[in-house]
Automatic annotation (TrEMBL):
This is Thioesterase family protein. Residues 140-259 form the Acyl-CoA thioesterase-like C-terminal domain. Residues 22-105 form the Acyl-CoA thioesterase-like N-terminal HotDog domain. It comes from the Bacteria. Coiled coil: none annotated. Gene3D superfamilies: Acyl-CoA thioesterase, double hotdog domain. The lineage of its organism: Bacteria, Pseudomonadati, Pseudomonadota, Alphaproteobacteria, Sphingomonadales.
Length: 261
């Protein structure tokens, strides 16, 4: 089931909707993080109604495993002249599995123009990237819903960085902001190449700042990069970026990851 189909079939009430998490969107025993975050965003946008400004920032806490029947609820925290804050929560079996706050804000004039969000050097365009070959440790959600290509030439040795081209197999009828959030968490944690395949990892929090009010790309391809810069005592911190197919920055983020081993 595509994400758009899932939203279309959701059982809605005044301030929430209910869905069943499809097996094809699972990552181990829980829903893929981008799936859960996109569900919460869809609820927030529905609560905001017509005239809601573009999404500019998302702060997401992955509280617990999400699977089976899920209730997604949103409420407006504050609506100002130019910005609106909306919180959203997902519960499964009566337990909170995700809590998020979204900030929607219209564009304003600015005298400052700064862009340090540049793609990595040596980047391959999507058409040149080596296709990702399925393997036993590949998550179900990735195999079922995404096309993946390596964005950099194969390097010697291991580093705490992952960089891929990713696109949804079916993105029809999706709001661009929902699509971006659905895609933006598709990479494994940046620390993963330094771990053994059996080492469990789990995202705890994710902050994603939208750098454009209107995300758009070519042929559905998005460049994703995760780079871990710290890992001690079971906690890893990483920076994340997402660019469109022309190298324009779309999302800048940061994530905390639990490492169990």
């Amino acid at each position: 089931m595509t994400f758009a189909d899932l939203l279309a079939c959701a059982e809605e009430s005044e301030d929430d909707f209910n869905v069943t998490v499809p097996e094809g969107w699972l990552q181990g025993r829980t829903a893929y993080g981008g799936f859960s975050a996109a569900l919460a965003l869809a609820a927030a946008m529905r609560m905001g109604g017509e005239g809601l400004p573009p999404l500019r920032s998302a702060s997401v806490s992955f509280v617990g495993p999400a699977s089976g029947e899920a209730e997604v609820r949103a409420r407006v925290l504050r609506k100002g002249k130019n910005a609106t804050w909306i919180s959203a929560e997902i519960t499964c079996g009566g337990a909170c599995t995700l809590n998020a706050t979204f900030v929607f804000m219209g564009p304003v004039n600015s005298a400052v123009h700064l862009n340090r969000q540049v793609p990595p050097a040596g980047l391959l365009v999507p058409e040149e990237g080596r296709e990702f070959e399925p393997h036993p440790h590949m998550p179900v959600f990735l195999r079922c819903n995404f096309e993946v290509r390596f964005a950099l030439p194969k390097a010697e040795g291991k580093s705490a960085e992952i960089c891929w081209w990713v696109r949804l197999k079916d993105r029809a009828a999706l709001d661009p902001m929902v699509e971006v959030l659905l895609v933006a968490d598709a990479l494994p944690p940046g620390i993963l190449p330094l771990l053994t395949p059996a080492t469990p990892v789990s995202s705890m929090t994710w902050i994603a700042n939208l750098l454009t009010p209107a995300p758009i790309t070519r042929d559905g391809w998005w460049l994703l990069r995760s780079s871990a810069d710290y890992s001690e005592r079971g906690c890893s911190s990483q920076h994340m970026g997402l660019w469109n197919a022309d190298g324009e920055p779309v999302v800048s983020g940061m994530q905390s990851v639990a490492v169990f081993g």
